[in-house]
DNA sequence: ATCCTGCGGTCAGAATCTGACCGCAATGGG
DNA sequence: CCCATTGCGGTCAGATTCTGACCGCAGGAT
């Protein structure tokens, strides 16, 4: 076959690697004539990837952002970095892109060479948890990817599931959709043995194995998968609205209260109102302690008890340590 | 020009989108004959991207992981997810891949359509900080990207720099290398006005503007950039070795002490030894409180005072709130 | 003005591409 | 075993595309 396709991809890769290239540099690199390079640049433009050109002494070609994404040509380390970053994003820490993250991750891991996969797994130790301090179990990225790929490919999978009461079962399912809700992943699927719909928490799921058998999608008895999950899980997920008056100026708290953690509103030059939400009063109590300032809890009232308990424990621990 | 390159990229995209495709499906999608699809599959194989084929009733083609990464064909949301994930990874939270993350980010953001860039920026609010609780300033991803691209393209940049004492200056530099050290990004560069090498902290740098003027790389007066940074910054960066005996079984602490946070070693069925390192005793004190158990500090001794102070503050704050 | 860059048309000769046709091989189900 | 459905790869004729060389033009910096 012709070398044109291969060369176009190499050209695209070069243009992504450094921003500015002269036609003669590209021609030398790709071992074709400058006229052919000019044609290749036109080919890229025809594909929808704008290449800006400037003539003259400091002239050359420059790949620019266009209306759509070109293919990404990545080296090994870049691919690993993307995989690790996506594992974080898929962990539910960034609302709004978790499903796209899983999709991208399924795509990337499908083609990731095994030596790079080993490197990603070696770095897995360092994957930051879903949120800091919520103390919840973390999702195994491999399980998440396996399920995502099965959903995508309409392929049955089997896995081991550990229920809330500790009971372990093996399941064979037709995965319908992954749903991220309340920072957790749920799998909505058809349970083949029980011949009914089921919802599983992905963090409780291990040993995911694709069966290699395809299925025809079924119609879910709900408007959509997210609604189905929301109806299935009991509302044990409580979220506290927290308001605390901090005895400090807003400027002194800069860098400690980040916008994703809570909203800081200046009362006067000596105090601020902090508003946040959270599902662990234990954690919130410790976090408030970290600011290094006195504070006054406005709501919820039950937080006061947690702060009191924490204070007592720390007092006891400090005297034990002295 | 021919449609072959375009079609190959579309084929690659389809193969990345779903795992299994029959030849006739692909032929219909791409509006060519099945014989042409077979040729295109061979073209992908010649490019180094293995496509597995199975004949028979459930047969078809499947793109597999090979020795190298193929180009990644991404949709809009996938690109945004990758950008957000990479911003996290470039933030220094994952040791070992931060430089590759920045490189990948520079590459991605070069071609990211502006409407997607706006979405990434809108999601920036939710980007998780470098580490949880170290209280340090966060790096502006746009500044990091701008600098990374300037290093890559050998292009002068100017920026505003706010030094430790609060003094603000404008700088024109030839960026040499970005170095990640101690979870911070440093820029090693040649200061054009001062005609000398300088090291800048990226989190103190704003208003990065490429000058459009290229420079020839200079030889750095050090073995490498990392060594140069290490020699340049004063050792105000202290890292504490922490050892604490926790009065709890290892099983009860599962989920609270993660491997990246510290190492948990069982003493007996009622206590564990926790080892970790950190640069903020304030934070470590609060973190220890969060476990919900009594503890005994073995080292460092100065941590005891921090715990005592925290306890006092929490005690005062709880009674103010009651 | 000179030099260095990009630009795009034209040409001849070579190379490649396509669909159609063919016979073969592998797989699963009846 | 037979049948249907899948992948495979060679061959052919006709059409299309590709390449380097050559040319004259345009833009930008010095």
Description:
Two copies of one chain form a homodimer. With 322 residues, chain A is α+β, with helices and mostly antiparallel strands. Chain A folds into three domains: 4-63, Arc Repressor Mutant, subunit A; 77-232, no CATH class; 240-321, 2-Layer Sandwich (Alpha-Beta Plaits). Helices cover 40% and strands 25% of the residues of chain A. In chain A, helix 9 packs across helix 10 (302-321). Chain A is flat. The termini of chain A are far apart. The interface between A and B is large, with 117 and 116 residues. Chain A binds a DNA duplex (30 and 30 nucleotides) through residues 1-2, 4, 22-24, 32-36, 38-39, 41-42, 53-61.
Topology:
2 copies of one chain form a homodimer.
Chain A: H1 4-17, H2 23-30, H3 34-46, E1 51-54, E2 60-63, H4 76-93, H5 98-111, H6 114-123, H7 141-153, E3 155-162, E4 168-181, E5 184-191, E6 196-201, E7 205-214, H8 225-232, E8 240-246, E9 263-268, E10 271-278, H9 281-290, E11 295-299, H10 302-321
Antiparallel strand pairs in A: 1-2, 3-4, 3-7, 4-5, 5-6, 8-10, 8-11, 9-10
Chain A binds a DNA duplex (30 and 30 nucleotides) through helix 3.
